[in-house]
User: Fold this.
Amino acid sequence: MAEKKHTVLNFIRKNAYYIIIGASIIIITVALAIILAAANRRSAGSAVKQPAEQTAVVDNGDRDKDKEKPAEEKPVDEKPADPKNPDEDKPTATKIVFSDPVQNAAIEKDFTSSTVVFNKTLGVYTGHMGVDYSAAEGSDVKAAYGGTVESVTTSYLKGTTVTIDHGNGLKTVYNSIDADENLKAGMTVEKGQRIGSVSDNNRQEYKDGPHLHFEVTLNGVNVDPKTYFEE
Assistant:
């Protein structure tokens, strides 16, 4: 044991110089590390504070700009809403009013949806989905309302039929008519414009004499034409 102690002491005596230098290097290194760490902490603290200061400057600038903005001017012709009549500015639907397809004509048969009428030609009671205007052969037939000619068709039994589309599912049908030669599908016609003349070419009703069979459909369903005439 004494020999080991003696050996260690001899080692320390012989290498004291190197031991002191090594210890000094370690102390200096640790000190430098502490100094650098402290400097980094200070730098990090400054970096965190800087954006806040910049943001504060920008915010102040925005507030100043808002103060400089002039008040928005309302249009001179703007009409204030009437609190007593909130529906005043709402668009109103245009009422559709038909003109008579045959002027000064007598109505021979009315529209029937729940009853039947006697057909003299066929000798039977049938439904009647339109209005028959009795008039002299050749009398003018006019469009009851403006629209687009959907079709002009002719068959042996029904004769000639003109259909006009008025939009929004509303159509008028003119049967037992001699259509004008220039009347074609796709043409636009105005209310009161001539489209043909009264005839008796509907062989299913020829015993009723010359007349116009006039129908109105809404979304494919027959409705009473009188709904669209002024009383």
Observations:
- The mean pLDDT is 80.
- The helical segments are 2-68.
- The CA atoms of residues 97 and 231 lie 10 Å apart.
